[in-house]
UniProtKB/TrEMBL annotation:
GO terms for molecular function: DNA binding. InterPro entries: Lambda_DNA-bd_dom_sf, Toxin_antidote_HigA. It comes from Sphingobium ummariense RL-3. Gene3D superfamilies: lambda repressor-like DNA-binding domains. The keyword ATP-binding does not apply. The keyword DNA-binding applies. Transmembrane segments: none annotated. This is XRE family transcriptional regulator. Keywords: DNA-binding.
Length: 106
């Protein structure tokens, strides 16, 4: 994994990593693996994969299934990364509000 994703900020939180970053840095799409190869092999529109790689679009279930099949990994891997990213974005955006919610006693 890239060291750039483990740099802490002033608030001591790790950088929130978009699935596009993982696809670029760990799966080497756009580097050793040309985007065109993924477009053809996984049947993903070039505009869509480019937007994901640019961290401007999310991974959805369809993209996850196609990338999982293409790379020979477990279905849900990329969707899980997207969910983790989205949850952290919401925590950061609404953390104070969420902290005020009182847990209901059973």
């Amino acid at each position: 994994m890239s060291g750039s994703r483990t740099i802490t900020r002033d608030d001591d939180r790790l950088d929130n990593v978009h699935p596009g970053s993982i696809l670029r840095e760990d799966f080497l799409i756009g580097g050793e693996i040309p985007v065109e190869e993924v477009v053809e092999g996984a049947g993903i529109a070039s505009e869509r994969i480019e937007a994901i790689l640019a961290e401007q679009a999310p991974v959805d279930a369809n993209i996850d299934l196609r990338l999982a099949r293409y790379f020979g990994i477990s279905e849900g891997f990329f969707l899980g990364l997207q969910i983790d990213f989205d949850l952290e974005e919401e925590r950061r955006a609404h953390g104070d509000e969420l902290a005020r919610i009182v847990t209901r006693a059973a």
